[in-house]
Amino acid sequence: MSRVARSPVLSERAALQPTDVSFLAGGGELGAMMRALDWSDSPLGPPNHWSQALKTTVGMLLAAQAQIVLFWGPDFVALYNDAYAPGIGANHPRALGRPAIENWGELWDDLEPLLAGVRRTRTTFAAKDRPFYVERHGYGETSYWDVSYSAVPDDDGSVGGVLCIVSETTERVLGETQLRASEARYRELNATLEQRVAERTAERHLLATIVETTDGQIQALDLDYRWLAINASCAAAYERIYGKRPKVGDSLHEFLADRPEHLAAATAVWSRALGGEAFTTIEEFGDPSFDRRVYEMKFEALRAPDGTRIGAFLTGMDVTDRLEEQVRLAQAEEALRQAQKMEAMGQLTGGVAHDFNNLLTPIVGLLDMFQRRGIGGEREHRLIAGAAQAAERAKTLVQRLLAFARRQPLQAVPVDISRLVGDMGDLISSTTGPRIEVTVDAPEGLPEAMADPNQIEMAILNLSVNARDAMPDGGKLRISAKARTVERAHRSGPTPGTYVCISVADTGIGMDEETLAHAVEPFFSTKGVGQGTGLGLSMVHGLASQLGGALTIRSAVGAGTTVELWLPVSHARPGAIDTAPQPKLQPLPAGTALLVDDEPLVRMSTAEMLSELGYTVVEAGSAEDALQRVREGLRPNLLVTDHLMPGMSGTDLGRVLRNQYPELQILIVSGYSNNEGITPDLSRLTKPFRSDELAASLAKLAQLAQ
């Protein structure tokens, strides 16, 4: 019997207990614990106040060697002896002096009716091997007990409690159960011996059939490298890679005698297994004139019934296709990581370009104003012209960033690619120079592509310049266009569909694999410092993606480069490519212009332009501010508003005011092409812009209003 732990806290409290607890003396460790226990929280109160019947019963059970627990009072407060304590495990000592439901909760639905029945009827309940579900060691289990529950009268003759004399029989019950199960299995084995022999024989036949018909390669060699066994799949694998099949009794040495290198490789792995080593390996075997395959092989020693090693056997599997698929999967994962990286860079670049356009707008506007007004002398004119040229270069750089980020403003229309490519021949020839032989092949009758003609021309020109730079000693440049249909998707190509494919091919120095892997990344360039921005291919790639197409590149060192721009075929009516210069239109000043932009510098430069064009300008820093001005009585003839602003967008502002004043002219200004929510009836102007570009946009608005 395990000993009950003595609590120092209980010992300290012992000095505070009444001294009339002699009935607890000689009660072992539980008696000492009861004397030391603070009974103020127990429903029973201190022991010296207990009824004489309770004291007598407790004194009796403490002195007993049997497992006894007393449940006293209507709350069934538990009092027990040393013999009983180990049977409740971790519930001791917290169960002492506490209502039974607190520590026997998991079996209370079973225990409480028994205790209540004895208390109510005064009839003893007894049972042998009675099962109880308990949680006494931190987990639930079914235990078995011989039990006798008897009513104990109190001093007034009523039932004071229930005395439970118990004896745990769990170990015996489980042992007998296991014994009966073993006896039953033994009887079953004897009764079915003949049947099992027949089944075992059938099992061996079935196993032999499985071994012979499985796709896995199974073979065994003796210590002299002769085949003891080989299944059909393994023999077929040998025939595939060597053109002949081994059979039982053949020698491995003789089988590969005409291929010494292959024999050496085979005996190297078999010698390890025949030496008793168990291992798994992946090796490539086969004559290249037939086939080379990769096998995963598990070798184990083959032993006689007495344990003597007589050979070795292997189970193998052709994993060539699996490994190739793993390589393809790794390539696809790398492509996905690259795409995610490019998408993240695109989002970052698009946001920076948008903010940069806001910064450029007042710079371009003010420099344009200085030039138009002829401010300063000759030196100042040169400086202003240089600054304006730098601002235009910055504007072009931002356009390329937006193209890479797929946020450039596009006017996608059906385009006759045959005509567009054919008309660019002379321009490309003059750009590439006399040492480059330019060939243009754009047959008539190609389907129209859905694209922005101006951006496509810029893309072809960029690709041609790249090709020129890749042929420093001259070469050939071929620009062609063909109708192509993609039936199956490829990880680096367009999705299935019909396309017009523009190809720019050169005979230049080409790119190695590492350079090709980074070719479309922004700012990546193989040119010297100051000789390029590294945005040419990334811009074309972004353009293709934004149009729903794709960009593919094939290149090898010394073999030139071919870049293909895939544009989806348009199913709408083709539109004309208007390359003729537009006449300079003058706006028609018409009263008040409401200018809305959350950037003060942009607002300042735009207001100056509108004032020069004859408008009375009222400025607002937000759409909400603009609506407040209108509510206060402002009746503008023209609304010029930024599109993306905190709160209400400029487009939503235009819709609200258009509903109130249908004659209101509206011009949406945007840093990049976030077209969501912009209806076709709202004219647009892209930042940054000069005064003449603003004037042209306003003139078009005036013409539409007439």
TrEMBL record:
One of its GO terms (molecular function) is phosphorelay sensor kinase activity. SMART domains: HATPase_c, HisKA, REC. The modification 4-aspartylphosphate is found at residue 642. It catalyses: ATP + protein L-histidine = ADP + protein N-phospho-L-histidine. This is histidine kinase. Residues 351-571 form the Histidine kinase domain. Keywords: Kinase, Phosphoprotein, Transferase. InterPro entries: CheY-like_superfamily, HATPase_C_sf, HATPase_dom, His_kinase_dom, HisK_dim/P_dom, HisK_dim/P_sf, PAS-like_dom_sf, PAS_4. Residues 592-702 form the Response regulatory domain. Its EC number is 2.7.13.3.
